Amino acid sequence: NTYHYATLYDRDRRIPVYSAYIYQPGSGKRPHTWWFVEPQLIGKNNLKDMERETVLIDQHKFTLEEIKESQAVLEDYNKMTGLDRGHLSPSGHQNSRESKTATFTLTNIVPQDSSLNNGQWNNYEVRMIPKMSKGCTTTYVITGAVPGNSDAVNGRVNRPSHIWSAGCCLVGAQPKRAWGAIAENNKNEVENLKLGELEDRLSELYGGKTVTLFNNACPRQ
């Protein structure tokens, strides 16, 4: 097994809290359109890799209800209107077919406002991050979602109130610059922030809990 990125997943709200990855864009095409779920979240079993729902049901004899208990499934997203399957770790920021495919698990996805996903958030992913990463030896990115007060469909999958992202640029082994961005998940607007400003905003949005990103290793100003 190869690890391509890391996700902290909220089993109750059925959305990721955040996904963290190294920005390594590659020239490979977007992979097939299959979507995967995570068998590790389904009780006790020996399956360690993401898999399609149909394979888990037909070959491994799980029921759809067992899969749905701890994570979102395709039917949840198929019933949503005005919302996209928004990647936290985007396939375009990975450099191989295998790593791009790994981003197509529903544990890396949140219900994201369609106009935002296809508009200013896409602009942030394809223009802002490459611009901020220029000259960096390594760029670390964390992208997350603040839980909202409502569910996107059927009382199962939370609709985040905000989508946020932070990056940290290293030259050699030294952190040289960092940045943040945040968007309300019902508007096609992205606010660019300093890392410290984003941490302060997230501390408010997460109910006063102190939020620090990159273990305080990157410039906040």
Question: What does this molecule look like?
Answer:
This protein is α+β, with helices and mostly antiparallel strands and about 220 residues long. The protein has a single domain (about 5-30, about 85-215), classed as Extracellular Endonuclease, subunit A (Extracellular Endonuclease, Chain A, 3-Layer(aba) Sandwich), CATH 3.40.570.10. The chain is built from seven helices and ten strands. It has helices at about 55-60, 65-70, 75-80, 95-100, 115-120, 120-130, 195-205, and strands spanning about 5-10, 15-20, 85, 110-115, 140-145, 150-155, 155-160, 160-170, 175-185, 190-195. The strands form three sheets. The protein has a six-stranded antiparallel β-sheet with strand order 1-2-5-8-9-10, with helices on both faces. The protein has a two-stranded antiparallel ribbon with strand order 3-4. A two-stranded antiparallel sheet has the order 6-7. Strand 8 (about 160-170) and strand 9 (about 175-185) form a beta hairpin. It starts with 5 loop residues before the first strand and ends in a 16-residue tail after the last helix. Pfam families: Endonuclease_NS (PF01223). It comes from Helopsaltes ochotensis.
